[in-house]
Give the backbone structure.
Amino acid sequence: MKDVFITISLALEEVIFQKRNLDQVISFWISKNKKTWTNKNILQFVTILQETTRWWRLLYEINKEINPKFGTLTQNIVAIYLARTPFGLPQENRITTKLKKEINKTLESLYCIRAIRESIPDWLDKLGSEELGSRWAKEISYLNSNPPIVLRANRLKTTPHELYKILTNEGYKVKKIANSDALILTKSANVFKSNAFKLGMFEQQDFSSQQVVPFLKVEEGQWVVDACAGNGGKSLHLASLMNNKGKIIALDIKDWKLKELKRRARRAGASNIETKPIETSKTIKRLHNKADRLLIDAPCSGLGVLKRNPDTKWHLTAENIDELRLVQRQILEKYCHMLKPGGFMVYSTCSILPSENEQQVKWFIDKMNGQYTLEEEQTLYPSETGFDGFYMARIKRGY
């Protein structure tokens, strides 16, 4: 445990102070120690690093009060976290009963301050409260919980019922979500080592995220543009629902993400996806009036997926959100022309802020002077669903 303890402290320093991506830091340290770490060590490392990142501010405030002197700041933070968990500390770093009492007493006094209790920056607590009012308190609380692992059955290769049987036979504990392609992993296990995954029978995708593509009302044989495709989660879902019939144009400004999409598409057996990096505005102009359906899964703050990406709290700034709002408007204004007259587009984000969602759609509808109309919009709140926070709006282009 001692080596893992030190490594967690170093990794936490990278996430918090060097602003490195949490998932990338996890991958780096696991790869670096793969010859010496057991599966138990890996589980300890991942869990503790994720949770100390999630609860950084609360742990930091406790540290300020009691100053336990275990070494560096991040070693203190990790030690305070471990003092309250079943993992425990290395023998030479044992926390005394007296110190545990100090931690608990300090915790009680800090709990009355929401930004500290929920471990978020003051600016974010202020913004959330301004935009969501009384709803913010319960949403941020839910966003600090551990995310479920949700799978989406790939209908190009299986059905949810068949996937359930296959994974159960392989020894995994899963349950189906009724009337959907989703299954939840109910007992922690590396399901990505399963034969079912290697054969492309499923993808990991949160249940809220799985609602976006069906909301687009896509049909087999249509021409669909996934305008901010990233590494392809929703493009693969489109291919599954379209039964590989029709065409999906997957666009992104980052070519490396599209290369990952191609790799995933091969495993999934998705043959109707064509990738195009957005190199200049000409890429978009060539697609004007071509799409029966247009998906704009816009870049956003990611505040709806904080439980999955707790490092966002420490990397994001209020200025970043201002910049993202501007980018969202630019994307809506420029990309909407790819849609055919009479076609549908969906604007979606993994944010719960109205300023990135409803307000952006209203701005777009007003700016386009009646050319586009809002058909339906939904906000999926974590406190109501138990899953990630998402927003989606279906918009129709007039003739």
